[in-house]
């Protein structure tokens, strides 16, 4: 129905802010999206800011998107549960985010959105795998794969998420802009 499609579009537009993606594959209740975004910021610096310090940095530079992020269980490593509270610009209140894995040496991070009003009753969870690679020019490439685990026979079409792709890249680019404007940060 039209209301469900509108809610689904809104949900995906919002969630793309946290799960950068562009290409999609639909696999029996799991929809996969992949994206690559390039940056002039070196790999280690981008990983520190975009992944390791995102709980502090994102609310600082994008408070309309994320108001706060707090650890409610764990020590920051695998198994940690975080409560992400959205900014006033969001129609959603919060989600629970579980850290599935983090590898500081290989610049990889995986996490899942496991609970919250942003799942809108149509998704079981969203799993994300982020890898920040070095680019030949000394910058970095953010590679992200997001898997949307739908409930029942919910169908999400790629056309519903096109508008959010720019927003997803915007969050990464906001971190990049902060790092370029503050060259001594995260050294």
Automatic annotation (TrEMBL):
One GO location term (cellular component): nucleus
SMART domains cross-referenced by the UniProt entry: Bet_v_1
Molecular function via GO: abscisic acid binding; protein phosphatase inhibitor activity; signaling receptor activity
Annotated Pfam families: Bet_v_1 (PF00407)
GO biological process, alphabetically ordered: abscisic acid-activated signaling pathway; defense response
Domain Bet v I/Major latex protein: 26-182
Gene3D superfamilies the record matches: 3.30.530.20
Alphabetical list of InterPro entries matching this protein: Bet_v_I/MLP, Bet_v_I_allergen, Plant_def-hormone_signal, START-like_dom_sf
Stated family: Belongs to the BetVI family.
Record protein name field: Putative major allergen Pru ar 1
Native organism: Davidia involucrata
């Amino acid at each position: 129905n039209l209301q469900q499609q509108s809610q689904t579009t809104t949900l995906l537009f919002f969630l793309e802010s946290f799960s950068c993606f562009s290409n999609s594959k639909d696999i029996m209740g799991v929809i996969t999206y992949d994206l690559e975004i390039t940056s002039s910021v070196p790999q280690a610096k981008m990983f520190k800011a975009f992944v390791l310090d995102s709980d502090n940095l994102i609310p600082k530079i994008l408070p309309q998107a994320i108001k706060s992020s707090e650890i409610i269980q764990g020590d920051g490593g695998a198994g940690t549960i975080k409560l992400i509270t959205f900014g006033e610009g969001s129609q959603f209140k919060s989600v629970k985010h579980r850290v599935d894995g983090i590898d500081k040496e290989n610049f990889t991070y995986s996490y899942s959105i496991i609970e919250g009003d942003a799942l809108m009753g149509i998704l079981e969870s969203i799993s994300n795998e982020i890898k920040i690679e070095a680019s030949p020019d000394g910058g970095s490439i953010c590679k992200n794969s997001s898997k949307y685990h739908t409930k029942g026979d919910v169908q999400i079409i790629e056309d519903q998420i096109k508008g959010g792709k720019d927003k997803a890249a915007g969050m990464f680019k906001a971190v990049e802009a902060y790092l370029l404007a503050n060259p001594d940060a995260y050294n």
